[in-house]
Amino acid sequence: AAPWLIPQQNGMVERLIRTLKEQCTHRHRFESIQHATRGIADWITFYNNRRPHQALAMRTPAEAFKLAA
Question: Domain map of the chain by residue range?
Answer without folding.
Answer: 3-68
